[in-house]
């Protein structure tokens, strides 16, 4: 492995124009596999979800999963693609032990969807990513290489094969060359994958969890000298499997290509591995010649010919797409584009929406999810949605605050209790005794005591310096150990001192 | 006492149903016949004695309980070793699958069981159904009961030989380029390649998916029809299976009649390479059809000349992909796995040892034909020829109801004669291949013995897709007329072994 001296990002962009191509594989969330009736549940006992067809036993045959085709069409429509009136599956022939038939049933020159686009927001501007095609195929099994240091096949003593994943439906979505992104290329790549993930989730065809391998991205990148028309040689960085990694991989490859080209070298067309630890890529397999997959139409399957009526029915049934929805919510919630971008990046849109649906005011819902809860998620290193609190519970906390039972501080403690597994908000409030002191008698006494103890301040207030009331409120809050409604305390102080608030 | 092995399937079933004989007696008679002659013939790769008797007992018990029996209940059958049989070996004539016990039944196997047909065992075949002589079996050749030094046809030579040597009244074959019809022709039996998609391919080990078709083999046209009806029909597990009612083949076989029918004779099916005695019997058959009331029309199908070339690109291409799964990872033979070799090496060693020369030849041919840069010239052109052949048939069937030809240009040739000459071997399928490429229906039935060698000659009848019943209507008429002329079925002239 040769260590590449990188060129600074700015220098690289000064000399070269990056061209990207993104290939994203999405595992569909169908109940059964693409060509047989086996279950697709994640985490099952190895090889327990297999049958003659997905094991490639002699004599077995595939049958197309209609839901898989429907999902593919929905994705195609949401990506503004044309939907083929007639298309076929094709066999992609190559040998690998985790591929039961030693060919992958895929699509070749007749994809189900083609010629589309996806608009993404980058720094408040819209960037259009053109889609070449979206096609249906099946996943392979999974190899686990045992006995080597790296977990890769080199150095392994043997490999274990699990065919549970073999035959799970995949949609491969391929962009046209993405040109014109310039120095925003890494952000465009990340924004595209983010938007695509949101889109897939909104269609309900997959959970698209990258950390679970349900969505996987290959990044193709080449540089051409600024002003040149012809594309340079590309590298293919495989399995870049988080949003952040997509951005980093593009950035790294831009800098690496620029270094190689700047030193008079040539880029080799090769597969590269991405390393999460430091964001670098290293050379994988060199493609000495284009791999020959000997594609030919799959003779075991009949062509897929979705009727126009069905396609239109599916088009009519598409949900509000994420970007449209986001723009609507942004206006409803009164946020700037930048603020909305933060909400999106935090993965909080659905959580906030759900909290509002449970009755919370928009600003309160956003405040909790983007503030306290985002901080906690960040601290714990988990997705926001993975926190052990539900939108309904957050909405309940908002309601308790609104009715005056909790103040801000107590609300935070309540949420802490919920996150700690102490129960729902009401339970936490009871267990921890977090009720605001609303007994007017007790509060009156505390106010009287505070006035008596701070005579000088009280005089200032009487003299019209209403702002000084804060100090007395503080004293009362301290005396009640924070369990008083600060607004009510202030009212009482001003009332007792005969001052108009 | 009646020799139970000499009965037709229809007669056997009737006798079992009436209680005249039991299914166990019938099965035992056939097992005894296998015991007596199969050492010489080598039709079977595996005989399932216990399984067959158990099935037969179940039929007898059903009858004793007063349950209605199906039209083939208790009739023994020889199953080509290309269909998966749960718990029974399935080798496809190849070393690479020696010892493999499938965990599932093919749809066809299941339908046979549902029909209470008694499966005697699995029959020999050219490895992966590639061949026209059964010499390519990894387990040794099969002899032709008419002359054991000659081939019984292929790839389904085990099935045809089992019928002709009275080891079973019914058999199953598969036909990719003629593997049902050519063995039927050279053994004096009846074989039908139904319309592509009529019989499920689920559980039939694939050679060339777009051409492969399972079908019935028997000693009479009616028996073939009864078996056809039992195994045909839509199967949701096979996407290419036709979702339409099965044509009324049994009714057609019971009502043989060609009066008013137009019969086409394709002039391309004649000439160089056709044995004189074969043409003589064929021409007599055409004359017979005319006498029986058919109108004979001469036709030209110019694309048929290119059928063999197209076939030997399409079939190897598909087989190169279909046979890729035999990689020693999940089932079958595994060679060289001594802990020092990579999976890739083990796969290569296994395939080198497990596949025979003809299979390797076709995998290499197909891999080459599909390669980038050659695809259009080879696979692409072959598919175009296929379209032309379909059009020729379409045009022919605008003028005629069925097309007839010799099934195969020559009678059975001696074992070994063409083993080193693949081209000569491939010519055996000259007349049968066009129907596979077009996906229509075709039958071979005996039309006499060639005067020069005394060996059976087959008459091929071809009908449009989903008009399989026409084969049986014409076939039954010809069979009845010829049997009357000969005074007995042709097979009675075969040596008794």
Automatic annotation (TrEMBL), chain A:
It holds the Pfam family GatB_N. Residues 350-497 form the Asn/Gln amidotransferase domain. Its EC number is 6.3.5.-. It catalyses: L-glutamyl-tRNA(Gln) + L-glutamine + ATP + H2O = L-glutaminyl-tRNA(Gln) + L-glutamate + ADP + phosphate + H(+); L-aspartyl-tRNA(Asn) + L-glutamine + ATP + H2O = L-asparaginyl-tRNA(Asn) + L-glutamate + ADP + phosphate + 2 H(+). PROSITE patterns: GATB. Keywords: ATP-binding, Ligase, Nucleotide-binding, Protein biosynthesis. The keyword DNA damage does not apply. It is an enzyme of class 6 (ligase). GO terms for molecular function: asparaginyl-tRNA synthase (glutamine-hydrolyzing) activity; glutaminyl-tRNA synthase (glutamine-hydrolyzing) activity. Belongs to the GatB/GatE family. GatB subfamily. Heterotrimer of A, B and C subunits. NCBIfam families: gatB, PRK05477.1-2, PRK05477.1-3, PRK05477.1-4. Allows the formation of correctly charged Asn-tRNA(Asn) or Gln-tRNA(Gln) through the transamidation of misacylated Asp-tRNA(Asn) or Glu-tRNA(Gln) in organisms which lack either or both of asparaginyl-tRNA or glutaminyl-tRNA synthetases. The reaction takes place in the presence of glutamine and ATP through an activated phospho-Asp-tRNA(Asn) or phospho-Glu-tRNA(Gln). This is Aspartyl/glutamyl-tRNA(Asn/Gln) amidotransferase subunit B. It comes from Streptomyces demainii. The gene is gatB.
